[in-house]
Amino acid sequence: MTISRRSGTPAYLLRHLQRPWLWLGVAVLALVIAIGSIGGDYATRAYLETAAERGRNTVTLAVAALRAQMARYLELPELIAGQQSIKAVVANPESPAALVAANIYLMETNALLEATQIYVLMPDGTTVAASNFLGPTSFAGERFDDRPYFQDVISGREERFFALSSDTSDRGYYFGAPIRVNGTIEGALVFKVDAGTLEDGWRGADYEIIVADPEGTIFMSGRPEWLFTGIRPIRGERAGDDNTVYANTRLRDLPVSRAVTEDGRELLTISGNDETAEYLVVSQTLPEADWTLSVLLDTAPARAQALNTVIAALLVVGILALGVAVYLQRRASLRERMELQREARELLEHRVAERTVELAAVNRRLEGEVAERRATEDRLRETQADLIQAGKLAALGQMSAALSHEFNQPLAAARNYADNTHVLIERGRIADAAENVSRIAGLIDRMSAISRHLRNFARKPNQKLSAVPVAQVVADALDIMGWRVKQTGIAIETSLPETPLYARGGPVRLQQVLVNVLSNAIDAVSETDNKRVDIEVRGDGTTVTIAIRDHGPGIAEGLNERIFDPFFSTKGVGKGLGLGLSISYNIVKDFGGELRAANHAGGGAVFTVELVAAEAPARTEDALAEAAQ
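^ that's the sequence the OP posted. Answer follows.
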């Protein structure tokens, strides 16, 4: 009987089952089933045992820490009860001095020991002194005769007791000691420690720590929602609201279910807050307090580790199986890969040869660019040298132009005075001629000062500034320009304040500024019908302002920003070099002032010199010395 291959005959299946990779698949499948069933249980038990060991270490440390915290305060009540101020207040509770001394002592001791409260009770349970006597919840005057710790202490026994405060609902651990005066118990001293301080180290870990009383009620825990719940069902009077231990707090059962592993480990499944968690329980009792401290370790990490271990084992098996399969397939594809590598190597060698040719061409271009850049740098250095020489020549030209401009006006005035002097001598008016000679000498002094100023023009001015009489400088400037005023027939109106004003500056250089501005004003009105120039001097205590207004055509639009530039002039060719306002602007800047130009609302231009006000010289000799500058 022959069955076709297409129909899936047994002969076809046998031929395929003989292939090695099919038998490998069957072996891998069997191994996966074995690891999933047997290995999962073993890994879970191993990780739970590791968690239990860690829990035993944790519970040992937690019990030791709790005992250490309790031992820290164990001997303190008896020691404090033996203090003289405490005995004095129970012996004489009506004494204000005794009350104040006891309260202050308890407050300072409480702050030093970092306890919650320390207070003294009389035999009837009334609080006579407390560390919180200044606070809003002071225990002073409160009665605690119904508290078990008070009843035991007043009977002569030292007591330790956990309870919930009925006043503040705070959980506290109470230490008590009798106060003996002359061998007689006259009161009780109670030392309260906040249970919350004992829980500070229990939060933020992957486990929970609880402390339960003999009935199974949790009164200490890092989980606030578990407080005052029972890990065992609450029965009897503890189920009501009248329990005295927990200040009439209603106790409730914790939603918990118990289970025991094959190894005898206790597991608790606790529900709440829309989540359910399983915990491995490790407990240890504290006989001295009749408590049970339990560490609840979340089993989810252990089970997750077990699952991860199983998955890792399955992955290892899969990787090994995949490695074997890859090895079987690799031999078949080895020849193909070798061929591909040969082709890739040939292609790479071809591309390297092409890139080598391209890099050689690029190198040649770079060499040409480097040679061209070097030639450009040589030309740049030559150009820089030419520019430096041109700058030197320009500086010499500017200095010559400045000297010509500054000396022109005093020389013209001196020539005019000299001509007048010649006429006066011929007419026999010797006194008037002598006056003209004096004026010529003054102009020569001014030219000497200008020469000194221009000689230092290239460096920052360092002349000493002084208090300059503004009215005198204005008069001197008008005196210098007098010949031009007479020649052109211009009227100059001067407005000076009654009180002399002094400005910070140099008299000669300030006179130079005014002469330059006046000269421009005379030029502006010389060809107009209204030939008048107004000079106004005013001061406000901090500044002195000199305003020179002409009635000419004003400053053309757009020239305000250029009017103080060197060699800028609106006059015709040969009538000015454009240096006067530039020099004047820099002089005023040296004085710490401002020189501004604008058009007046009534027509013409107005130049404003604003200077810093100065006090009048104290002595005439000082004034003469400053004027000589």
